[in-house]
Amino acid sequence: MTAAAAVELHDVTLAYGSFVAVKNVALSIAKGEFVTLLGPSGCGKTTILRSIAGLVQPTGGEIVVAGRRIDNVPIHKRNIGLVFQNYALFPHKSVFDNIAFGLKYRSVEKSMIAKKVTRALEMVRLPGVEKKLPSEMSGGQQQRIALARAIVIEPDVLLLDEPLSALDANLREEMRTELKIIQREVGITTIFVTHDQEEALAMSDRIVVMNKGEIEQSGTPEDVYRRPESRFVASFLGQSNLLPGRIASVQGGKAAIRIDNGPELLALAPAAAREGARVTAVVRAQKVAVGSTGGSAGTMTGKIVSASYLGGTAAYFIDAGGVRLQAIATIEDRVWREGETVDIAINPTDCLLLDEGGKRMR
Ligand SMILES: Nc1ncnc2c1ncn2[C@@H]1O[C@H](COP(=O)(O)OP(=O)(O)O)[C@@H](O)[C@H]1O
Ligand SMILES: [Mg+2]
Fold first, then answer.
1. Best probe residue, ligand 1, of 46, 48, 59, 82 (max atoms within 8 Å of C-beta)
2. Is the distance from CB of 13 to CB of 27 less than 8 angstroms?
3. Which of 33, 193, 211, 255 could bridge to 269 as Cys pair (CB 3.0-4.6 Å)?
């Protein structure tokens, strides 16, 4: 991307006492980009947002927003919009006063405040609710007010910390789409934090996968989902089979992997593949094809251990020559039943290899 970066983190480290919550995080976010920090609870996502907002001070590194180094700038002199899970509207103030708060604080002229509040409410598609109290509105509407309050100051960057997690499942999905549309329309640079992979995959231009305070991988949703760089990313995103084994042979661009106590699988051979090397084969559950036994080329047989009907798809656990495989398959004809013998096929292109250090083999 050639556009100037809106937010840059240069080797940001943050320790709480002797505990290092964020380690050498380097990240550059383009203007207008929607970037999601995704990772399990405790991996440092909130700490990164808090350090950009100025609520905590990094112990190392630099933060640059809109071309200005801000990690030494006091919180009220940073131009940043924040929305948290518990949106913390002032309960006894009207919607208008809630949204106007940041503008009054910035000494914006009165008639301008009214214009900006009206405009912000239009942007979040809640026009005309200025006089209401937060308690008169639904959870989803309150969340939109919190969003209006954050964007009304025209921040350099919008920070969203699990803003949808307090909403029930249906509303959460609706707000996901809505939030993304609003973000696009306003064109605001956004850092979104979630531990929910579906949310991240659905909303983001780019996903930054974090583990234990460090960035594991950064890429488009498709990149991180289809081309995980590490064991952590492969197991955190989606449902994958992680099968330890050894490279039995490399031939014609394919590597035959002898799974420990199990069958042999074919993978596209990375350049680094050497006969005898220990590897972990990674196969998405959706890429394990299950069919009736016909003995066609490239298949092995397995026995259905358990089957769950999921509507359009079914999830299976299958015993395949000594290993347990997880498969999620579209229901063509009928759901396979426990105890049935099936053919299993895995395309070599759908079998990634991790080296002994848990990194993807290249
Ligand atoms: N004020 C604090 N004092 C000490 N440890 C903290 C503090 N805030 C967060 N932590 C710890 O830092 C780590 C990262 O926390 P956080 O950034 O909140 O993670 P996430 O948002 O990814 O769940 C966690 O282990 C958490 O317990
Ligand atoms: Mg958090």
1. 46
2. no
3. 255
pLDDT digits (tens, 9 = 90+) for 201-240: 999 999 999 999 999 999 999 999 999 999 999 999 999 9
Q: Which domains are present in the chain?
A: 5-234 (3.40.50.300), 239-354 (2.40.50.100)
- Looking at 22-165, list the stretches that DSSP marks H as alpha helix, in order from N- to C-terminal side: 45-53, 95-105, 110-123, 139-151
**Distance (Å, rounded) from C-alpha 172 to C-alpha 79?**
28
Phi, psi of 217 (to 5 degrees): -165, 145
Per-residue pLDDT band for 1 (boundaries 50, 70, 90) equals very low
| Ligand 1 centroid – CA 21 distance (Å) | 6
Cα–Cα distances (Å) from 355 to 208, 241, 351, in that order, read: 22, 15, 13
CB distance 144 to 124 below 8 Å:
yes
The pTM of the full predicted model, rounded to 2 decimals, is: 0.92
State pLDDT tens for residues 85-109: 776 899 999 999 999 998 998 889 9
